[in-house]
Amino acid sequence: MIGVTANEKSEAKRRLTKEARREQLIENAFDIVRELGADALTLSVLAERAGVSKPITYEHFETRSGLLVALYRRIDQQQVKVLQESLSRAGGQLTETVRLIANAYMTCHSASGSEGHAISAALMGDPQMGAVQQELMDNCVGIFADALAPFSRLSHEALQQRCIGIVGAAEALSLAMTRGRMSQAAAIENLSALLLIGIEPG
After folding, report:
1. What is the mean pLDDT of residues 11-27?
2. Given this model, what pLDDT does residue 116 score?
3. Which CATH fold would you assign to the domain 17-62?
4. pLDDT tens digit sequence for 124-170
């Protein structure tokens, strides 16, 4: 049997599928944000960290904004997954549903640290980010409203509008939490209270 040289092993390691390469780049990008901050993240810096050529990073993300948006979407996807999994365990009681929503929301933001807020700040004023934030906000509002509708006397439209305000408040609470201005327990308690009052239980 012919042996495999070290160079051949190294080359095989580098030949990732496009999907696997994208995952590798995203993980490296998160590492850079954690270690150096979002402002330090560029496609060139990412290429150097990942050990690939710059054209590869441009092929996957096109621009720095595209890379940051990809990271922001990834954080949101993880948060939505945890939130939906938590709600699947709800037993049909308002207080339990509210607690599950608040706990899942703040736990996710605590796990991602200040990364999400830093990435969002780095994209401030970017037209692409504005559209993405609205899309993700609408999705979160929909999840909140669908979970809380059985307990609210508000109309569908009114509950959707109320949840826009609640999600905005949840974002502000999570920011205060990640900046150390309140504990995770306090953030969960405050969001739970806002949810209970805001939906006007029927």
Report:
1. 82
2. 81
3. Arc Repressor Mutant, subunit A (1.10.10)
4. 888 878 888 889 999 999 999 999 999 999 999 999 999 999 999 99
Can you tell me the distance from the alpha carbon of 184 to that of 175, in angstroms, rounded to the nearest whole number? 11
Which pTM was predicted?
0.81
Among the listed residues 115, 19, 109, the one whose alpha carbon sits nearest the alpha carbon of residue 71: 115
How far apart are the C-alpha atoms of 162 and 187, rounded to whole Å?
Answer: 19
- Please give the span between the terminal C-alpha atoms of the chain, in angstroms, as a whole number: 75
**3-state percent helix, strand, coil for the chain, nearest multiple of 5:** 80, 0, 20
Encoded tokens for 166: 């609640």
Tokens of 159: 């509950």
Q: Is the dihedral of CA 186, 191, 193, 194 positive or negative?
A: positive
Q: What are the residues whose beta carbons fall under 8 Å from the beta carbon of 71, sequence distance 6 or more?
A: 26, 29, 30, 33, 115, 119
